[in-house]
Amino acid sequence: MAQHDENVVWHDHPVTRDAREQQHGHQGVVLWFTGLSGSGKSTVAGALEQALHRLGVSTYLLDGDNVRHGLCRDLGFSDADRKENIRRVGEVAKLMVDAGLVVLTAFISPHRAERQMVRDMLPEARFIEVFVDTPLAVCEARDPKGLYKKARAGELRNFTGIDSVYEAPEQPEIRLAGEQLVTKLTAQLLDLLRHRDIIKS
Ligand SMILES: Nc1ncnc2c1ncn2[C@@H]1O[C@H](COP(=O)(O)OS(=O)(=O)O)[C@@H](OP(=O)(O)O)[C@H]1O
Ligand SMILES: Nc1ncnc2c1ncn2[C@@H]1O[C@H](COP(=O)(O)OP(=O)(O)O)[C@@H](O)[C@H]1O
């Protein structure tokens, strides 16, 4: 990958994040959903986005499956490719936070180091790690895309939880018990956002 060029100089613009946040009426933050395939990241992030949208919050949902059709279409599932995937998504999320949006991301993001990398990219308190904690056995029983079945049969290599690591968050801002009702999980997340004054009570 090409390195940063010292002849390229950062340029500040007159409309600031603060000004954009005032216009939106809320802060820009990232809700970074992490968890196994099938844990419920997309479902819960989608339900939360719908609830926020109804409340008039400006949101955007970045979803692993979708991003891998465009921005990250050249990447696979080796450790190096997953790292690059998360780096790119982190940079996009950072721009969206600067735009004043409540950004929801749904990526397995299996490595602690990469999640920490994204946390470090963002201003203080603008990264909220949401651990969708669903036991592997439950994810495997759900298996909506038949990928666990393929992985167990040896037809799909480097599958997270089977023959590729998932490092659970040690201190996420919130841990969701992924077997509970989606409505309950969504309510917990809305409470957290209100409690942190990210959205109005
Ligand atoms: N080897 C392997 N391991 C894990 N997942 C796989 C793999 N191959 C394909 N898929 C499908 O890709 C989705 C995960 O993509 P992500 O971008 O979220 O992965 S990562 O964060 O870069 O690890 C994941 O989607 P979700 O089930 O929504 O998590 C799978 O559908
Ligand atoms: N809290 C939940 N309770 C029951 N089923 C769920 C729950 N969350 C998600 N699901 C179901 O589990 C499957 C995987 O959910 P999905 O959101 O695609 O997971 P991920 O994005 O983590 O791969 C889907 O069929 C979805 O309907």
Could you characterize what this model shows?
By secondary structure, the protein is of the alpha/beta class. It contains eight helices and five strands. It has helices spanning 17-24, 41-54, 64-67, 79-98, 112-121, 136-142, 147-152, 182-195, and strands at 29-34, 59-63, 102-106, 127-133, 174-177. A five-stranded parallel beta sheet has the order 2-3-1-4-5, with helices on both faces. The protein starts with 16 loop residues before the first helix and ends in a 6-residue tail after the last helix. The structure holds 3'-phosphate-adenosine-5'-phosphate sulfate and adenosine-5'-diphosphate. 3'-phosphate-adenosine-5'-phosphate sulfate binds at residues 37-38, 42, 64-65, 68, 77, 82, 85-86, 107-110, 145, 147, 156, 158-160, 164. The site of 3'-phosphate-adenosine-5'-phosphate sulfate has 21 residues, from helix 3 and helix 4.
Low-confidence stretches: none
The main pleated sheet reads as: 5 strands, parallel
* Contiguous helical run count: 8
**What is the global morphology?**
globular
- Give the distance, in angstroms, between the N- and C-terminal Cα atoms: 45 Å
Helical coverage, percent range: 40-55%
The averaged pLDDT comes out at 96
Number of strands: 5
Strand content: 5-15%
Give a list of the ligands.
3'-phosphate-adenosine-5'-phosphate sulfate, adenosine-5'-diphosphate
Radius of gyration: 17 Å
Structural class: alpha/beta
Strand order of the largest sheet: 2-3-1-4-5
Encode the helix/strand succession as letters: HEHEHHEHEHHEH
